[in-house]
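Input record (one chain):
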Amino acid sequence: MSSDEIRAIELLSRVSYGRVATSMRAMPFVAPARHIVSEGQVLIRLHEGLGYHRACNGSVVAYGADNFNSGSEHLWSVQFAGTAEIVRPTEAQLRAFGSQPDTVDGEPFVPVFMRVDPRFVTVHSLDYPGETPVCHPPAAPVGRQGGPPSARQNAERSVRRHLHHVA
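The corresponding structure, as predicted from the sequence alone:
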């Protein structure tokens, strides 16, 4: 495993959820998934009732995760592509997944587990030195004078951004 792949796996192990993407009936889709890293491989847990596992099984998928909601000054995103395969997790892997939702879209949650062997790995990092990323402020309530921020306010909120790509 290359150092870039090791770094990507290490970052993935810091978060619990990501998104799996592939196509179903010639249409692309992205679905949330719970993941764990086990022995250098990524295992994901999906809801069987949505049927996404059928489209993923035996196909090349993309899987991505990030820490964008962490509030950190150092944001990252990992994406990799690889073949997905339905698997039966070990007892230790089931414990690592932790609790599962009671329902998905109002239906009882039925887990299905897949292994994705990372092949093509990309890591992006965004560094915000000295301050946390600026989020868009909430919309002003109706009837209140708000208006767009001034040039001075924008200058104060500006953040140096650095994008680093590792492939």
